[in-house]
Amino acid sequence: MIPDEFNLLDPHFLEQAHALRIVARRVAPGGRWAEHRSRDRGQGLEFCDYRPYSPGDELRSVDWNIYRRLGRVVIRLFEEMEDLPIYLLPDLSHSMWAEAEQPRAVVAMRAAVGLAAIGLDQHDRVGIFPFGDELDASTRPTSGRGRLAVLAQALTRGAQAARRNPTGTNLAACIAKFRGLGLREGVIVVLSDFFDPRGVDTMLREFKRTRHRPLFVAIKRREDREPSLRGDVRVRDCETGVVQDVSITSAILQRYRNTYDRHFEQLRTFVRRRHGGWLDIDADADVMDQMAKLFEGGRLVS
Known about the structure:
Elements: H1 11-17, E1 21-23, E2 33-42, E3 46-52, H2 64-70, E4 74-82, E5 86-90, H3 104-121, E6 126-128, H4 148-164, H5 171-180, E7 187-192, H6 200-207, E8 213-220, H7 222-225, E9 231-236, E10 243-248, H8 250-273, E11 277-282, H9 287-291, E12 299-301
Helix pairs in contact: 3-4, 5-6
């Protein structure tokens, strides 16, 4: 048993998570029984429609009352209820560990475990794929309420390794690897500061190739957009380690803010077009209080 050094299984935090629900409009067929309406039609409990009989259809699905009255052979279709695959990708790269107190990586991990608890509680299949410059796909998606500790332990191992050997971020390559896993269509949740030296366009090119609905959770601090630095300073890139001397003036700060805002607006625009979700989390505030904003009336419709 790995010690819960990141407090991922805090009972009060998990109690709040269990009160929330994720509701999918429709899920991809091919899953197991759960709580979400599938795009498939079959032998569920709730009647939804008729269609003409085709050779190979089961005779028990034929509505013989309609056949007797109208002479037409039709079969009854029912709503299939299946699980929603939830794929959690917490960023454990170098920039997420930059702060000594309450590192963003720990915030991302706690939010990921909170979402995992919600999914497992409603019989969904949940996978956790930590990433930095590479994606860790060693822990496959799982289901069952008792599996939360397994996911938390896998995430703890990944975090311990990331702290020992910090890496930069290559989100595009990680998404490409994730896409290659061929997992059933679901929700892909990326929990990150979204600082990648390759830029937002490179990230989004890979995201656009995925079939999954996106939920982006941006882990931020006020200092990100409103740095307190002034005058002549030497700054170090928290991803690449590159050092540069900069003279910070009002004009330079405004250009920086404009670039920062444009970066995140591109990400939000992509999410809106994919009918996904977006959440800003302040790393210095309570995680669950902020996560609850996603769940209007206790439900997140995806």
